């Protein structure tokens, strides 16, 4: 899956025929400054990512999904799309929203992480 342009800080981490993983600022979330598990990612998948075990391949009838993860157990809104192209555009739009500070990531956490939030605020321009 190709992207014409991604918002600043986002890059393609992995691309397969039915899954693409975009990452935000892997230079910052590098296991030294912050745990690797905190690396913001956007998954673009054919079929839901949390499918039942044993179902290795998505069905041709499955929709495409775009999901923001801030940590393995901290998930943003899942967006559904009918086509690969629409999912690609949806992922690029979500990356832009995140970069512009339009995603309320604090609301996704049950346990606040003040230092992490401060760094995200700084990166996405919210700390200005």
What does this structure look like?
By secondary structure, this protein is an alpha+beta fold. The protein has one domain (10-124). The protein is built from two helices and five strands. The protein has helices at 84-99, 114-124, and strands at residues 10-15, 19-24, 41-46, 64-71, 74-81. A five-stranded antiparallel beta sheet has the order 1-2-3-4-5, covered by helices on one side. A hairpin with a 3-residue loop joins strand 1 and strand 2 (19-24). The model has no long low-confidence stretch (mean pLDDT 87).
Gap between N and C termini: 34 Å
Mean pLDDT: 87
List low-pLDDT spans.
none
Count of distinct structural domains: 1
For the biggest β-sheet, the strand order reads: 1-2-3-4-5
SS content category? alpha+beta
Secondary-structure element string: EEEEEHH
What is the strand tally?
Answer: 5
Biggest sheet descriptor: 5 strands, antiparallel
What is the rounded Rg?
A: 15 Å
* Helical percentage: 10-25%
Shape descriptor: globular
What proportion of the residues form beta strands (DSSP E)?
Answer: 25-35%
Q: How many alpha or pi helices? A: 2
């Amino acid at each position: 899956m190709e992207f014409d342009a991604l918002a600043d800080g986002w890059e393609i981490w992995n691309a397969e025929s039915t899954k693409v993983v975009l990452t935000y600022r892997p230079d910052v979330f590098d296991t030294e400054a912050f745990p690797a598990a905190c690396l913001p990612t956007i998954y673009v998948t054919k079929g839901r990512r949390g499918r039942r075990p044993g179902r290795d391949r998505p069905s041709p009838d499955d929709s495409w999904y775009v999901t923001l993860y801030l940590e393995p157990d901290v998930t943003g809104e899942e967006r559904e799309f009918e086509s690969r192209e629409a999912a690609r555009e949806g992922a690029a739009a979500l990356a832009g929203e995140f970069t512009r500070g339009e995603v309320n990531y604090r609301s996704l956490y049950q346990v606040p992480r003040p230092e992490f939030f401060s760094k995200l605020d700084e990166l996405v321009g919210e700390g200005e």
